[in-house]
Design goal:
The structure holds 2 protein chains of 2 kinds. Chain A is of the alpha/beta class. Chain A has one domain: Glutaredoxin, CATH 3.40.30. Chain A has 5 helices and 7 strands; from the N terminus they run αβββαβαβαββα. Chain A has a 5-stranded mixed sheet. In chain A, strands 1-2 form a two-stranded antiparallel sheet. By secondary structure, chain B is an alpha+beta fold. Chain B contains 19 helices and 10 strands. In chain B, α7 runs antiparallel to α10 and α8 packs antiparallel against α9. Chain B is globular. The chains are: A alpha/beta, B alpha+beta. At the A-B interface, α1 of A face α10, α11 and α12 of B.
């Protein structure tokens, strides 16, 4: 048996151990990071869904001021609690737009009347088309878009009260 | 008091393991005659660890909340069976179980083994003691199961409701028994490498342990596959999840070892290779345990994750496997290869079997650890999914299954009989199956199509070894082999049918609506809330029929409040020709419900095949045990038994 064959298992073991030691030393980062951060918002135009609320287009997100785009729906349970946090953000001067996914006007109007309405514009995305283009896999999700239409941050899941300082800091940094 | 007794027994056992290791070194060298003492110490160690484990069972059965482990994992109101199962349903308890099985296996081995040379045996017992020592240290230093709480709390914290499942209560012990059976093969290989007495006697001593471990691993994997199938509600039988792969890798190595060990036993060939496999099989068990326990790979199955304990386990892994590999590298040149064999012979058939199994093992190993290495080198995160494993390992597994039909018909050394002629009928059957699938479903994917072909061939070829002589007079081990190989064909039909003919229907249905899936018409009658002991649930009522009378299925979604958790409980109905599998999901904003229906023809054959494979192993083990017992009766008992028992 050649020397190489005899020592091959040992060498493979050392490689394996090196990999495992590295893994144990570097804690696993289980956060999923958005691939769209740093990318421009994909071009879209969404029709209004409620009378008196304008729809949303990608051009509305490049007006020189950072905005928070909230992907939500009236049929989404976590969105109910998130609305309160969004209202806190609005009270601190944050501009918030909404994308209503697979929603119906009556249901949405009732939802906003019951829970509050922090949105300046709400675009209707009846087939989740724009949601998919944005790389969002569920509701609620939120995007921070800077004044030039570049996505700076994607929040997967609801924004909770404890996230408010982080969101404000990220909006500040996006200026 | 009982907890202290258990702890004392554990410390004593650890001391005895140290003595066993220290004494084995001069005994193997020949300067001291410690053989009898070592055997007695091994037996005593087994008794002490059993005492410790019994003590743990007692404190759990009594819900003695002054023991920290009981407080963390039990509750006075829990059903008695889960109170007892709670003893090993946690990290400390399962490590104590591991050590107990290790020591008891060592004791049984010390009493029964006398087929191999005395020096090799003592060296193997020394190696077993070294293995034990590391795990005693782990238990006593890093995870003492008997630690007390003062003052004792009034009530325990309970057990995760998801883990109160009979399958989960008894599967880990099955896998552990399997892993630890491989530890004897490991110790014997290390012992034989120390003395360089690698011969057919060693193979015969090792074989029953490998066979027993392999049976348990086969059962564990089959049961695990069924558990994931019905519990996770995804309708699949194998997900190539890291934790599943962790149990598959030792099985692949043990399967290869099981075959190569026969070459060593019958022809004294493949010495170095068989020793390597024996070391590898147990190493893979340790790697598997480490991967599951340390959480280095993210998995849906990861229950108990602790990086510090992971470090300890990794150190043990490095020491034991590293030492065995170094020993192998040093000693391999001194192993003289046995009798030569020709290209077409039973030996070369088994070599091909081993090559294919090893390559599949390599594929699974690389696929499981690839994400780790990519992230270490480039920082990029990725995951390796089922498409890779199916595409790379699938064809090799099919090739292997086809060769399983041919290999057992070959004779040792060189082929003398007309093997090809005997395979005419199986080959024709395989061809017929191929033609039938082409005619009936011309658009079938290639793997299921070949799966049916190979399965038909193998089902007909597997029993042929019995036809050489009168089947009733064939050895039990041959019957075992035939049953196992036939089981592969059965499982293969199940997998191919699952891949080829599964009908799936994913729909949003309103109450009163009808859906079709495969031959079934399923009427959705509505959803009603219901409650269990520690959860609330939504239950859908489905009426399914295919011509004859309707049957009712009630899939549920369970909501646990503490911790908040949602599980879907599939409703499954088994028929002779398949399973109807139904899952209810969430409510849609429009007032409909997500329903997922599958008709899976012949899917149960997958697990029936797995069970047949294990039954075949049990037959072979029984045959070997009876043979060994008969030959034992002809010899006189060795003198140490007269001295110590």
């Amino acid at each position: 048996m050649s020397r190489a064959a005899r020592f091959a298992p040992l060498i493979l073991l050392v490689l394996l151990l090196a990999g495992l030691v590295w893994r144990l030393a570097t804690p696993v980062d289980t956060d999923v990071h958005s691939r769209l951060e740093g990318q421009p918002v994909p071009a879209f135009t969404l029709a209004p869904i409620l009378p008196g609320k304008p729809g949303l287009a990608s051009a509305d997100l490049a007006t020189g001021r950072p905005r928070l785009v909230n992907v939500f729906a009236s049929w989404c349970v976590p969105c109910v609690t998130e609305i309160g946090v969004l209202e806190q953000l609005q009270a601190k001067g944050v501009a918030i737009d909404g994308i209503a996914v697979r929603d119906q006007p009556q249901a949405l109007a009732a939802f906003l009347a019951r829970n509050g309405n922090p949105y300046e514009r709400i675009g209707s995305d009846p087939q989740s088309q724009i949601q998919i283009d944005l790389g969002s896999s569920g509701v609620p999700e939120s995007f921070i878009v800077d004044g030039r239409g570049i996505i700076r941050y994607q929040q997967i899941g609801p924004i909770e009260a404890s996230d408010v300082p982080m969101i404000l800091a990220r909006l500040e940094a996006a200026k | 008091m009982i907890a202290e007794l258990g702890l004392a027994a554990l410390w004593l056992a650890a001391g005895l393991a140290a003595l066993q290791l220290l004494l084995s070194i001069p005994t193997v060298r020949g300067s001291v005659d410690g053989a009898g003492t070592i055997r007695a110490v091994a037996v005593l160690q087994g008794i002490l660890t059993l005492t410790a484990f019994a003590a743990l069972l007692v404190v759990f059965a009594r819900t003695d909340l002054s023991v920290a482990l009981v407080f963390e994992n039990s509750h006075s109101a829990k059903p008695f069976i889960y109170k007892v199962a709670g003893a090993w349903g946690n990290h400390e308890g399962s490590m104590l179980l591991w050590v107990t099985v290790l020591a008891v296996a060592g004791a049984v081995f010390a009493v029964l083994a006398r087929r191999t040379g005395e020096r090799t045996l003592i060296a193997a017992l020394g190696a077993q003691a070294a293995l034990g020592l590391g795990f005693y240290a782990f238990l006593l230093i890093a995870s003492n199961p008997f630690a007390r709480l003062d003052p004792a709390p009034l009530e325990g914290k309970g057990l995760n409701p998801l883990l109160q499942d009979p399958g989960l209560a008894f599967r880990p012990p099955t896998l552990y028994l399997g892993y630890v059976g491989l530890s004897i093969a490991f110790s014997l290989a290390v012992g034989a490498l120390v003395t360089t007495e690698v011969d057919s006697r060693l193979a015969r001593a090792m074989r029953p342990w490998v066979l027993g471990a392999w049976i348990l691993l086969t059962l564990g994997i089959t049961a695990g596959s069924y558990w994931a199938y019905y519990e996770l509600g995804w309708g699949g039988f194998w997900f190539w999840d890291p934790v599943e792969n962790a149990s598959l890798m030792p099985w692949l190595a043990a399967t290869a070892l099981l075959h190569s060990i026969n070459v060593l036993a019958a022809r004294a060939a493949l010495k170095a290779w068989t020793m390597m496999l024996a070391v590898l099989a147990f190493s893979m068990s340790m790697v598997g345990t480490f991967l599951v326990r340390s959480g280095v790979l993210t998995s849906v199955h990861a229950f108990a994750i602790d990086p510090e304990r992971g470090t300890f386990l990794l150190a043990l892994l490095a020491i034991y496997v590293g030492a065995a590999f170094v020993l192998f590298a040093v000693r391999a040149p001194r192993l003289r290869e046995g009798a030569p064999f020709e290209l077409v012979s039973r030996e070369s058939g088994l070599v091909i079997n081993n090559l294919l199994l090893t390559v599949i093992l390599g594929i699974v190993f690389v696929g499981t650890l690839y994400p780790l290495f990519v992230e270490a080198i480039t920082g990029e995160k990725l995951s390796v999914g089922a498409p890779y494993f199916n595409a790379v390992a699938g064809p090799l597994a099919l090739l292997l299954a086809a060769l399983v039909g041919i290999g057992p018909l070959l004779s040792w050394r060189r082929e003398r009989r007309p093997v090809l002629k005997r395979l005419t009928v199986p080959a024709l059957l395989g061809l017929t199956a191929l033609v039938i699938t082409v005619v009936l479903s011309p658009h079938l994917a290639i793997l299921p199509r070949l799966g049916f072909t190979v399965a038909a061939f193998l089902a007909a070829a597997a029993p042929l070894p019995l036809t050489v002589r009168n089947p009733l007079r064939a050895p039990l081990a041959t019957w075992g082999m035939v049953v196992s190989h036939f089981g592969i064909a059965v499982a293969l039909v199940g997998m191919a049918a699952n891949g080829a003919f599964t009908s799936e229907r994913l729909a949003v249905a309103r109450p009163g609506q009808q859906l079709t899936v495969g031959p079934w018409t399923v009427a959705f009658d509505g959803v009603t809330p219901t409650a269990g002991k520690n959860f609330t649930a939504l239950e859908a009522e489905l009426r399914a029929s295919r011509g004859e009378g309707a049957i009712i299925l009630r899939p549920q979604t369970h909501y646990f409040s503490d911790p908040p958790m949602e599980t879907s409980e599939a409703a499954i109905r088994t028929f002779w020709n398949g399973q109807l599998y139904t899952v209810v999901g969430r409510e849609d904003p429009s007032g409909g419900w997500q329903l997922r229906l599958w008709w899976k023809p012949f899917v149960t054959l997958i697990w029936a095949g797995g069970a047949l494979i294990a039954i075949g192993g049990a037959l072979a083990l029984l045959g070997r045990a009876l043979g060994g017992w008969r030959s034992l009766r002809r010899r006189s008992a060795p003198d140490w038994r007269e001295r110590y028992i």
